[in-house]
Amino acid sequence: MSSKSMIPYLLNWKNNEWDRMEKILAEDFEIEIYWLGMVLNKSEYMSMIIAITEERPNAIEFEIEDEIELGSHTVTHITRTSDGTGLQQSEIIISEWFNKKYVKKCKSYTTLELDPKSSEKWIESFQKN
Q: Does domain 7-128 have CATH number 3.10.450.50?
């Protein structure tokens, strides 16, 4: 696993290791969460993650499907079962790294109705392009 990887961050989330999660994020970190239509800074994002995890513990029940590194970016694919609907939810997280150990920016794309087999091709398309 490369030093530029969101996998440790996601595993820290599963273990409620907030301090470790926060250390991976740069001080000027921001994330654009497309399905919410929001851009959050580090403090806002961590507050949201903690609140979501406390309110919906199943939010951390996800599978890490794949991750690739493209220069100063990583593309991470996770899946989980959506609350209430039972549909498979796929999420792609594109992370921009600073100094190989801090995440500066993320973009998160989520879809509820995508067939998991189709979503596997997302990573392949990023590798080709």
A: yes
